[in-house]
Design a protein that fits this description.
The chain is built from eight helices and two strands. It is mainly α.
Length: 251
């Protein structure tokens, strides 16, 4: 497969002038540019949704937007056992950002920022910190620390590893699925590229469209939903289930 450039990624080396050229200091230009494209889409979409919500209740676009909001509201309510606007906003924002990152490749010339492990690792750390901060807020720092020594103090290393493992689990799951999907799609289109009869066959049978829809949209939405649900589940476990004696009166 000569000329196959799936792993061809361009990098910035901001510290190269100081002699630091190690790959650790490299910044993926592709990831940064595509991330800013996603942020621009979110900004424009947010402005459009703001005007759509103000429309007549019978408007179809308003119905779609409100259905999305109500669905996430019910999901947060059912998972946590109570509704919290801040948790709803965080989980919904996380889902919207990830789903756009996963699906942006349907726009010609763009790539998924989530096929870069740095992006998914950052998302995993943000999700982890959010859950831990609200676990401390809900139960206090002392109770939070005591949980690491349960059921006895020798379990401290395992409990710490168990907590940190959620970052690796969520990050690598999202990265692996998106990278794997984009790799399969890239290999397929690389194979048919330059073969007119294969391109025609793929277009005529709908295989090309199926590959784009499955790996570009369906998988992207599913993985974003899984990431958002895992965050919500970890949050629910952290602020309620681990401390059953304190469930009453949780804000």
């Amino acid at each position: 497969m000569e000329g196959f450039d799936l792993f061809d990624t361009h990098y910035w080396q901001p510290l190269a002038q100081f002699g630091y050229t190690n790959a650790f200091f490299n910044i993926s230009r592709t990831t940064v540019i595509n991330t800013w494209i996603v942020l621009a889409i979110i900004f424009v979409t947010g402005i459009c949704i703001r005007s759509i919500i103000k429309r007549d209740p019978d408007d179809i676009l308003r119905y779609v937007v409100m259905s999305f909001i109500v669905t996430f509201k019910d999901m947060v309510d059912q998972t946590l056992g109570f509704f919290s606007l801040k948790h709803f906003a965080f989980v919904a924002s996380l889902f919207i950002y990830i789903v756009l990152c996963n699906c942006i490749s349907i726009i010609p010339g763009t790539e998924e920022p989530t096929r870069d492990l740095n992006t998914t690792l950052a998302l995993g750390i943000i999700s982890f910190l959010y859950v831990q901060i609200y676990a401390i807020k809900a139960h206090g720092l002392l109770t939070y620390i005591k949980e690491f020594f349960a059921p006895f103090f020798l379990m401290l290393p395992l409990n710490v590893i168990g907590k940190l493992a959620t970052i690796i689990s969520m990050s690598f799951r999202l990265f692996g699925n998106i990278f794997g999907g984009s790799t399969i799609a890239a290999i397929y289109f690389r194979i048919i590229y330059g073969a007119p009869w294969l391109e025609a066959l793929g277009s005529f049978t709908g295989i090309n469209l199926l590959i784009i829809l499955f790996f570009g949209i369906f998988e992207g939405v599913i993985q974003a939903f899984v990431f958002a649900m895992l965050t919500l589940t970890y949050l629910s476990t952290a602020i309620t289930h681990e401390f059953p004696e304190e469930q009453e009166g949780i804000p």
